Structures are given as structure tokens and as C-alpha cells.
Amino acid sequence: MAEYESGKRPGLLTLNRREILQLGAIGTGAILGTPALWAQQTTRPSPPPRPKTNIDDAMKVPRTKHSLPGLCPGRVVHVQDDKSLVDGKFDADVITKMFTRGLEKLTGKSPEETFKLLFTRDDVVGIKVNPVGAGLISTRLELVQAIIDWLVAGGIARENIIIWDRFDYMLTQAGFTTERFPGVQCEGLQTMYLGDLEEKEGEESKWRNKAGEHISAPNFDRDTYYWADVEGPKDLPYLNQHVFNGTYSYFGKLLTQRMTKMINVPVFKNTGDGISMATKNLGYGAVCNTNRLHQPLFFDVCTEVLAFPTIRDKLVLNVTDGLRAQYDGGPMPVAKFTYEYKSIFLATDPFALDSVCQSLIVKKRKDESVKVNEHPRFTEYLRYAEKLGIGVVDPEKVEFVTA
Fold this sequence. Notes:
30% of the residues lie in helices and 21% in strands. The chain is an alpha/beta fold.
């Protein structure tokens, strides 16, 4: 897989139509949302009433010993090593040592003991990556390999490890394939047709079945969903990209019926004046029909989706990949805003992790003379998680340490 040199990869505005399609920015809205779309909410004098959701249903379900905020509430570990990225090349051995050191600092236990605290040998473990910006700002393959090696050493069978994301083609583009990770499964929750959106007769059959449903519809669990009183558009491009419209965002069956534990491996990057890291990697990545949610619910989706047992009781570890980070232009890849941070961050609590990383990226943006909007709307979802009891974000309670 080709690497991109800083300054050599075009920004989003210079991509041609085919490249934009491959990044997922098609139809009536980009998969990941846009900074302008998210930021405009802060300037409206009277925002519309917040739509009703089924968050109360999630909160009624009893919790387990693994429920968020997890084994180490409020604890965030930062590991940095200048040798992890030298002359544009990532050192897998150094990255493995960084991950091991981070685990030990996070739990106070050896990697073997930490494994036993979080997993059993019978678990089916899903590793959620972020493949956007393949080769430039996507989750590093070397870091995922270190995690897999740790799981296998603990006794997890390789076939019980699943690298996953929402879109299958993005996984392939970023190098998450069974050829690269032998014995491990690599699965997207859905496929998306990347052909001409002005479809000719018969073209719909490439992404819709004879009944008119998206071919990925069977991959989603109609009995487990995030409901929000917001209708999704009914045009074909939206359906192609989001599988369903209406008011339901269904969880993938991969999460509800197969995986028993989950490790979240997002990338250190911004989305406008907010971040697209631990909670957004799952909040907008674990369910379908999401574009309808960006404006009316904003970052609250990142809190409420994670409050459902499907994620809340299975997500046991978060490892934010800041080996190469991006401070502006996100969540899409823009090479001129990337930098060699040579860091990873570990936490069982994704909200504590995001609260720390939000502060760090704001500082970086200011250091780079980026005008920063620090409206509370960009971080209220973190405090909301603390109110729900699924995260710790109070600065007086968060423990940020280096390893």
C-alpha cells in the first residue's frame, strides 16, 4: 500500500469525482459529516428543539462488570516514542512496545494479567478501526497488528478476531485485508455502490435486491436500534449510502450477534472544532442511517449510541492512534494538516479519552494559528456521558498520565 508524503496528497477540495466517491462523500451528504455542517449549529440563535430518542431504553438495561466507563474510569495514558516514526516509516517493533507499555501503565498489570481482566479465551473480539484517508491518516496497520498479537498470546483464536468498519471498501483501501492479517476476519457492516449516481436502468441491481432493499440490509439487526425522531431522506443516493431511511438506525449484527468484546482504535484528528476520535468512531460507525442525525443531534449521537448495551457492555479498551495525527481539515484527510505526533493513547473510558484529546487538539490548533471556536456545544456530549454514568470527564477526576 502506498504511503503519502506530507503535502503531496490533494486535499478534499482538489479531489476528482471518482476520488470523492471513494472517500464516501456522495449523494445528499458526506458519510462523516462536514466541519461547516457541524459548526453552523453554533451560530443559530434559536436551534430547533432536540429530537426525541430512545436513550431511556438503553439506560433501563442492567449493567455488567465490563460496562463503560470500564475497568479504569477516568484514566488516560499517553505513550510517545520518537523512534516510532522515522523518515516517514513506521517501526512495528517500537509501536508494539508502546502498546505494551501503555497497557501496563493503564491497569498496573502485565499485558498477560490485563488480558485476563478484560477477556476470556472464548471471546469474539471486534477491532474497530478508522480506515478513512488510507495510508495517510487511517488507523495504522502496525498498531492493529500489535493488538492482534496481544490477543492471540492471551489465547484468542485468530478466527475469533474481527477487524471491522462500517464500509467494506474502505477497509480494503486502507490495507485491512485477510492477506495482510492471515486468519483474522475483516468485515464491513455494509457495502456501497461507487458507480455513477445517475443510475441507468439495471444499475440499481448492483446495490438493491429484487424487493428494492439495499443488499446490505440483512447485515443489520432490526431488533436493536437507535431511534431518533428524524426522518432520513428517501432519494436513492441516500439509501445507497445509508441502507435505510426513516427514523431507525440499526446496529450491525456483527455487534449484536457475534462480537462479545470490542477494542476501539480511532485516529487522532479533528472534525471542525470538535474531534473525530474514540466516541465518534463508534457513534457514527456502529449504526446505519446516520447522516440524518448530524445536524439535529450533533455529537450527542456519540454519547447515546455508546450508551446502548451493544457497545456499553462490550467495549473494554480504546487505543487512539496519534502516530500520525491531523489538526485541521478533518474528518477527511488533508495532508498539509497532518503531523508526526508519534503517540498513542489508551483508556477503557472513551469519554475520558476524548476529553483529554479534545484539549490536546485545541492546543495544537492554536499553536498552528488556527482560529478555534471553543463553544461548549463541541464538548457538551462528554459531560452528558458523565451524567449518564458511562464516562468520567470532570477535570478533577480525570487522571492523565504518561508511560
